[in-house]
Amino acid sequence: MENEASVAQQETNQGTMQQGGQQPGPDDDPCCNGDCDPGAIDELSCSAKRYQTQAQIITDSLAKIGQYRDDFATARTRYQAALDAAGADVRWARETLGDVIDETLKCHVKGHPRDCLDHGLQKAVACVRSCGDQPGCCAPSCEFDPDPGEDQAAALKGRIEQYRRDVDAAAACFTRVIGQITELPTRVAALRSAVDTIKQDASASTDGKDWARLYARAIVARWELEDEQVYAGFARPDALVDCLCQSLTCVMKGWEAIAVLEGVVAELDCKEQAAKDRCQKRRADMVGEVMCHYDRCCEEHDEPTPGNGGNGGNGGNGGGGKPPEAPCGCEGHHHHDHGNGEQTQSAG
User: Per-residue DSSP letters for 162-186?
Assistant: First the structure.
């Protein structure tokens, strides 16, 4: 009876502790796992998922970076050739336009009207600049931390999303800057044509001519022919190559960090899903879970389980060793050894 009271008190204490919100310790795991814990298999499978994800992202990113690398390798030579070819047209357009403005247009547009047009150009330039149309290097400042630290999957996903945006911005900058190599000749040719048209219009008949609009066209073309515009902020090959390098470095470091963090997230998500699956299986087979605990209870107390061969092959007393002092559900009996080989049974 004392043993029964002790067991009852233990059960009461355990129930009180659980109601108080305390989590069971590692030795109080309510799940019947056994020596071959399926969770360990899930751990290995999820670790493999992590490295598979990392490898796939790195493979995909290398395909993109490879093209950037090839473009970067020839950028200096190709851009120098484009600068050399454009130089003569730029000089002609500047000289011709300067003559048209000084010798013809300023004679017809004077005083306050000309001041208003010059001021209007300043306002127009400020307007397009405010829209993000800035010459020069567009490479973003990139800071990537591949260490997941103690962050959980949700926080890591947020960091990955930001890193992907940064990488996309760097990649877009690289594409924009490398595009200057082919865009420069087209842009210079268009400016030369525009200046030639302005020259012809200025020398044509003056009857009914809108000199203010013609002057506006001329000063806009003059602004377009400044180094900052015509060369998009890259008047020298070194400036263009440096910007490409910054962008490419950002892309490479970004993909490296993203691959690491995506792998960690894949592993964490895999473990979470595996734990849910295990719980669903236990919920679907509550009887099997109960029987697992039942078998372990009787095994720990050296009791034979009904239907498993009578006395379980553990000797004549069915216990195979020292009989238990507390019941495990096997008929609810207590066995007491008096030390002389004789045993008595008492009902619980």
Answer: HHHHHHHHHHHHHHHHHTHHHHHHH
Bridge partners of residue 345, in order along the sequence = 335
Question: In a 10 Å sphere around its CB, with 0-12 CB exposed, 13-18 middle and 19+ buried, how is residue 243 labelled?
Answer: buried
Six-digit token string for 313 = 């092959």
At which residue do the structure tokens 């103690």 appear?
Answer: 150
pLDDT in tens, 213-261: 999 999 999 999 999 999 999 999 999 999 999 999 999 999 999 999 9
In order of 60, 168, 255, 259, 287, the CA distances from 48 in angstroms are 18, 28, 20, 14, 33
Cα-based distances in Å from 215 to 115, 133, 149, 201, 224: 11, 24, 63, 11, 14
Amino acid in position 260:
V
Q: What whole-number distance in Å separates Cα of residue 216 and Cα of residue 105? A: 10
3-state percent helix, strand, coil for the chain, nearest multiple of 5: 70, 5, 25
Do 160 and 263 touch, CB atoms closer than 8 A?
no
Q: In which residue are the tokens 């372990």 written?
A: 296
Q: Please report, as a single letter, which amino acid is at residue 290.
A: V
Q: Which of 248, 255, 230 is nearest to 180 (CA)?
A: 230
pTM score: 0.67
Q: How far is CA 51 from CA 39, 55, 273, 281, in A?
A: 19, 6, 18, 27
Q: Could you give the CA distance from residue 149 to residue 140 in angstroms, rounded to a whole number? A: 25
> Nearest 10 degrees: CA dihedral of 78, 83, 88, 89?
90
Bridge partner list, 347: 333
| DSSP letter, residue 5 | H
